[in-house]
Amino acid sequence: MNTLKIILFSLSAVSSYAALLYKLFSMRRSWRDPAYIVLMTTLILQCVTFTLGALSLSIGSLFGIPNLAILILHLAAVAYCISAQLLLMLWANPPAEIRTRIRAWIVSGAVLFVVLTVLFFIGNKPGTPGTAFAVGSSDPVILTYLLLFIISQAVPCVTIYLQCLPYARSTSRVWLRRTLRTLAVGAVVLFLYCATRAVNIVSPALGWHLGAWAIAPSVFSALGIVIVSFGLTMPSWGEHVSSVARWQRNYRSYRALYPLWHSLYESSPGIALEPPTEGDTDRRWSDLHYRLHRRVIEIRDGWRALRPYMDRADTPDGDQAMAEARKIRQALEAKTSGLAPAESQDNGAFDDHDAKTFAAEVAWLTQVSEAYGKLA
């Protein structure tokens, strides 16, 4: 059982150190940001807590005081929970607006430090085994100490969960919203740790024998910390993930628009701000967002230049994208032959499609280009 606990504590510690090292790369540009300072404090305390968790059961005494490593572990865990609470408040509010609440949490933590320390030294009589503080005991002082400690862990889980969801609904930042939802899930899992740990704590006093179920708190703790570590770093790497996804989406659109753009460019070379060079017509990797905008504008310019050759009587029906592609092809053929229809479209605004956003415009032109490619 102890071996499995050490493995789970080690897993939590590894995820904590990974998150800490990742956030260290932001120190140069963020070291003056209060939220970043609290985030780094939270991650450091998280590392300390779970490193001590992996080592405390094997450390009989520290500075000549038996079980002192367990007290330090518990105090670090309390500081970690308070720091996480402060971090969440700083993410959602300007520091000036929450100074009183920050002070209240810090004072509460300091009082709890004193109470836990006093109870520890009263209950830590000579010969008291480490398992009494690590698992549970029928001694009323140790039982009070442990219940007070686990309540100090459960309360931030509840407050963080209750704050994360409203903050997630109110923020317009996509990755902050995902972060808050992830932290809410982590808070639920860690609350399950607190609930199962409370059962473990009172089981000796009630004469319960939990058997293999006694490992449940360690499982919930490790899972919760992995989720929280993932969530705490999400605002940093999430934007990079979005950038990569956006680049891939733009690249697919840029290439998909090429058949339509190329035919319009051949018909009206003047639409191109930068004439294509041989070999890179649809393999441009840099400035892709700008190039996609240019391609859309040039397609619309080329389309407008064909309006005098589009038959007014030829109205789209059925698949609108295919119908528009067919009209463009017929107009290109008419322009090449010099035979304009008797009733042509004018050069005014497009009345065939009205995209409200650039993304919608790209999606529409992509459909037309793909349909045009099938005709060609």
From TrEMBL:
The DUF6545 domain covers which part of the protein? 246-372
Q: Which UniProt keywords apply?
A: Membrane, Transmembrane, Transmembrane helix
InterPro entries recorded:
DUF6545, MAB_1171c-like
Q: What is this protein called?
A: DUF6545 domain-containing protein
Pfam short name (any one): DUF6545
Residue stretches spanning the membrane: 6-25, 37-63, 69-92, 104-122, 142-162, 183-206, 212-232
